[in-house]
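Section 5: illustrative case.
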């Protein structure tokens, strides 16, 4: 229940080159990419010309003894480096801009994907883990696009071009250089696999640490009231310690890869120097030829060690890409059907539950069992019951936050699964139990469902929700910042802002989940007045623990063990002496 499905591509991402899925995102930036590739290719070609110029300089100095020729080649070298500098600037700038743009849109796509997934998906995952994917994993991919991809291409050009020129200069010495290639390939493959596993583990442990910090900061009042700062610090430190262990292991593997390839590659150069020196002594090649050959050999060796380092970075990026595209590939289980029904006209709507049962993932006990309810247009239904009875679940099924396991929920006679999802939720206003607010002004929070609302409409909604009384006492009124999650306002004030937000939306169906929980008597009275204004002329479902909140409802449903066990008006249910009456007496005594 509430789990999102993963496309075939998402499952395959872990077994293929997930990083390569970034390449199609370069298409809109083709001019910059082509320009960067051109600069990179020309720059690499000029780099490969350098040893040839050095060879001619050496021969001019030691064989021809010509200062004029020596000066001429020195000027050529200086010009070559100036051109390379300009090309490098353009390449780095263009690729940097491309990488930033691509990852910006990747973050947006990932965010869009995450906010479209059902509440059940978000319930199963810490918020910090998801924000870590948006932040650190996308930053890793940005590094690939902005630098590492270009460096990979450059070093491959140096490697291939260097080997070709080595074979042209002296194929026997080139064979000596290539004798170590099997060792290089074996080291890259074996250690590269271990590096990828370690990199994935590091990112996972850091995501756990991020989630722990996010949870502690989000509940800072609870943490401090229980004196649990040290405990939370140790918890966070424990996650960091695990990340550090994994990071040290990753560094060890990466260092091993880099070290092995360095020894092997430059060991081959020692062999070339030894064999080439003998050829110079025997007058079979000139000193300039040997120097140019050694420079190409150094170029190849440096390219191999650079590729080893890039291979390690690539493995880290591969792990990040798997996680990012794994989330992007998830298909929302709750979405608009391919052929949605035509919604009826706006107005007070009927709601019906027909044999509804629902079980959450991993829970063998259904949250609701064969629930049948009929709510007439414009009717107010109160839902009460003990904790865990399934009250909130009923409210969350109407806007289709979850889908039923059996049966159907109907709005205006249409199964909610057949409605266009945006249209369905656009007609339903929900005031959740936690009455969350967003960081911003009071006006922005009230207008959250209608960002284009005029100031007069916002003020009217605040007045109807009885929020004007406290808003007018604030120095900046509706322009007052509420703080993160509304931390600068009291519970009653946050609740009235939440009600104003729903009133401005003007929904056909209103769902109020524990609207007066945790409020003092004065705030509760004001909120109840706001609720009366909000429910007027609307189909309303009030989920309440305090029975006082639902006493004036048209009907009250008592829920226990996932079933509706009683239905009637307040005085009728009291007279029957069942669950509702017991709850009422219990609250009266308390």
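Designed sequence:
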């Amino acid at each position: 229940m509430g789990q999102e499905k993963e496309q075939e591509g998402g499952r395959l991402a872990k077994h293929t080159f997930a990083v390569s899925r970034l390449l199609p995102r370069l298409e809109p930036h083709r001019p910059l990419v082509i320009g960067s590739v051109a600069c990179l290719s020309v720059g690499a070609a000029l780099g490969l010309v350098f040893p040839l110029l050095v060879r001619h300089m050496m021969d001019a100095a030691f064989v021809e003894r010509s200062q004029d020729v020596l000066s001429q080649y020195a000027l050529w070298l200086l010009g070559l480096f100036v051109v390379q500098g300009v090309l490098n600037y353009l390449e780095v700038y263009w690729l940097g801009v491309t990488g930033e743009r691509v990852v910006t849109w990747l973050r947006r796509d990932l965010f869009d994907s995450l906010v479209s997934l059902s509440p059940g998906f978000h319930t199963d995952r810490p918020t910090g883990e998801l924000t870590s994917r948006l932040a650190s994993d996308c930053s890793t991919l940005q590094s690939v696009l902005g630098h590492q991809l270009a460096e990979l291409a450059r070093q491959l050009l140096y490697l291939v071009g260097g080997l070709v020129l080595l074979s042209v200069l002296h194929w026997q010495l080139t064979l000596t250089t290539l004798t170590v290639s099997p060792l290089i390939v074996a080291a890259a493959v074996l250690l590269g696999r271990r590096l990828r596993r370690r990199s994935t583990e590091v990112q996972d442990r850091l995501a756990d640490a991020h989630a722990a910090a996010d949870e502690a900061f989000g509940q800072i009042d609870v943490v401090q009231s229980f004196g649990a700062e040290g405990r939370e610090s140790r918890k966070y430190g424990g996650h960091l310690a695990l990340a550090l262990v994994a990071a040290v292991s990753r560094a060890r593997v990466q260092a091993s890869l880099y070290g092995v390839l360095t020894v092997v590659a430059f060991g081959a150069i020692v062999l070339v120097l030894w064999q080439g020196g003998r050829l110079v002594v025997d007058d079979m090649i000139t000193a300039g030829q040997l120097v140019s050959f050694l420079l190409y050999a150094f170029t190849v060796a440096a390219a191999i060690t650079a590729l080893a380092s890039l291979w390690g970075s690539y493995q880290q990026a591969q792990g990040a890409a798997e996680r990012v595209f794994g989330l992007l590939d998830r298909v929302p289980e709750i979405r608009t059907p391919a052929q949605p029904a035509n919604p009826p006209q706006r107005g007070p709507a009927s709601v019906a539950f027909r044999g509804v049962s629902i079980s959450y993932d991993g829970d063998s006990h259904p949250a609701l069992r064969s629930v049948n309810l009929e709510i007439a247009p414009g009717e107010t239904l109160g839902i009460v019951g003990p904790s865990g009875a399934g009250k909130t679940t009923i409210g969350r099924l109407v806007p289709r936050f979850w889908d039923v396991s059996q049966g159907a929920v109907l709005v205006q006679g249409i199964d909610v699964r057949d409605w266009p999802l945006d249209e369905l939720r656009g007609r339903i206003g929900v005031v959740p139990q936690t009455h969350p607010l967003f960081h911003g002004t009071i006006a922005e929070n009230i207008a959250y469902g209608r960002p284009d609302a005029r100031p007069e409409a916002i003020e009217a909604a605040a007045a109807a929700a009885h929020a004007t009384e406290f808003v007018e006492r604030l120095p900046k009124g509706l322009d007052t910042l509420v703080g993160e999650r509304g931390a600068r306002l009291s519970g009653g004030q946050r609740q009235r802002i939440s009600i104003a937000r729903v009133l401005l939306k003007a929904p056909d169906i209103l769902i109020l989940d524990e609207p007066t929980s945790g409020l003092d008597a004065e705030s509760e009275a004001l909120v109840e007045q706001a609720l009366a204004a909000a429910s007027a002329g609307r189909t309303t479902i009030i989920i309440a623990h305090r029975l006082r909140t639902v006493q004036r409802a048209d009907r009250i449903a008592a829920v226990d063990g996932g079933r509706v066990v009683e239905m009637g008006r307040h005085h009728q249910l009291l007279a029957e002496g069942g669950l509702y009456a017991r709850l009422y007496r219990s609250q009266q005594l308390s």
